[in-house]
Design a protein that fits this description.
Layout: H1 2-20, E1 38-42, H2 49-55, E2 64-72, E3 78-86, E4 89-96, E5 101-102
Antiparallel strand pairs: 1-2, 2-3, 3-4, 4-5
């Protein structure tokens, strides 16, 4: 009985070793997408007048601005990301330098 158990254990070990010893024949390509946008904090009082006007218009004025950031994309386009809050809800609004809401 000991011989059967030892033989089974040896075969199982040999099978595991053979499975782990296989060689990777094709390299795996790993790609990382990096966001190249820069995000700079801006005081709410320092926002451009066009952005302030948009924040005071419907339906945005129902939300209270809590933080603002000037975001510059890799292609040099800029917009303001305004973090807003209404009761327990939070959201972000993207507003261009001209005051237009970006979808």
């Amino acid at each position: 009985m000991k011989k059967i158990i030892l033989s089974a254990a040896f075969l199982a070990f040999a099978g595991l070793t053979a499975a782990n010893a296989t060689e990777v024949k094709e390299p795996v390509a790993i790609t990382v997408k990096q966001d190249s946008a820069t995000k700079v904090p801006v005081e709410l009082k320092d926002l451009p007048e066009a952005v302030k006007t948009t924040l005071q218009s419907e339906p945005v004025k129902a939300w209270t601005p809590t933080a603002a950031f000037l975001v510059t994309n890799a292609d040099k386009t800029k917009y303001y990301q305004i973090d807003v809050k209404k009761e327990a809800e939070t959201a972000s609004i993207k507003i261009g330098e001209d005051g237009k809401v970006i979808q």
